[in-house]
Amino acid sequence: MDAIRFPEGFRLGVASAATQIDGDCRNSNWYRWYLEGHIKDGSNPDVATRHRDRVEDDTTLMASMGIHDYRFGLEWSRLEPQKGVFCDEEYARVRDELTLLINKGIRPLVTLHHFSNPLWFEDQGGFLTKEGIKDFLEYVDQTIGRIGDLVNEYITINEPNVYALNGYFAGTWPPAKRSFFKMRRVIKNMGICHRKSYIHIHNIRRQMGLTDTRVGFAHHMRVFAPKNPKNPWHRLCNRIVIYYFQDYISKTYTIGPRKYYGVYADFHAINYYSRTSVSGLHDETFENVDCNDLGWEIYPDGIVECAHDMSKIIKLPIYVTENGTCDNHDAFRPRFIYEHLAAISKSDLPFQRYYHWCFVDNFEWLEGMSAHFGLVCFDPATFERTIKKSGEFYKEIIKAGGIDAQIISQYCDCSYHK
């Protein structure tokens, strides 16, 4: 492992989502999904990490680790608990948290939609309908009008491909539909929502006299490769999966379909975790590769491969808005972080940010609290937070502006288990 220096201006932060940490989430589709018994370990998103009760403590802990960039999400179901009824008290709480972050020297990147829907929106059809597009834009307008003076950077929608695939094709997430055509419609309508939100956010902040706005969507990207490159079926399936899972979204969300051609992103926001082996229209993992505790392959070079694919569409600054690994014993996370940052540092692409997923172990959707991605350990019995070895490593590399030989020998002398 070679020492690395981060590019000039490159910043390291952490990421989270409201449903996964806040608690107090009973008006959302994910709380209902929990009540219906779909969470593997029975974890309750109405509890999560109780961040709502510990905002100041969590923010102070983040600042103590030298973290000055934080991507966090808003809980739409609290901000608009009924259609057209926006909650002043909840927006005041958001403003209070943003002010606290800013006062601690932490720059917020706000995510407007991260998988969770209000029940009223879900029950009227969500992103399947034209009405859903109108409702989402009203939520965006209200939100930017209320917090736009405090925040200049936004993610409109997180991982539309994962949301649509799991909720409308595989049927493993709410609302548990199983239709290729509904999946495609949701992806198309979410694209409309993103492109229009991009315009609305810029316009609203411009009316406030603010011109430093940056907007993107967080794209879940993977490297896909045929399981057997000599097998024509594997190669065909690989092309199909790449197009429908990410390439269609990469292009139409960023520069629009032909009729609406333009630029609808100020940066490429990439969520990257793994590589997938393809022999059919389902996920597989190559044999004899390093994997994390969920069985996902650890493939660091893929973070640059995905960024390169986005840069071929249009050259923009690159934010890695999620990257991390399920390592329940914190045995290899420092090595995982090192290898992905090393790949970034060796690249000539314009990487500007890296947001580690996540800060504190949290509610990982279907996995509940059983999958640990955090730099900070969460005790569900006491709600206490404890910085892990990987958290100390992250603190050190932020302070050093890179990873030197001493840090490598202290933290990265570990191997992946298989």
Strand-residue proportion? 15-25%
Q: Any idea what the radius of gyration is?
A: 20 Å
Would you report the number of β strands?
12
Overall 3D form: globular
What structural category do the secondary elements indicate? alpha/beta
Question: Sheet with the most strands?
Answer: 8 strands, parallel, barrel
Query: Numbering strands along the chain, what is their spatial order in the largest sheet?
Result: 2-3-4-5-6-7-8-9
Percent of residues in helical segments?
40-55%
CATH architecture: Alpha-Beta Barrel
By CATH's scheme, which homologous superfamily applies? Glycosidases
Task: Briefly note the CATH topology name.
Answer: TIM Barrel
SS summary, helix count? 14
Elements, N to C (H/E) = EEHHHEHHEHHEHHEHEHEHEEEHEH
The CATH class label is: Alpha Beta
Low-pLDDT ranges: none
N-to-C CA distance: 21 Å
Tell me the domain tally.
1
Round the mean pLDDT to the nearest integer and report it: 96
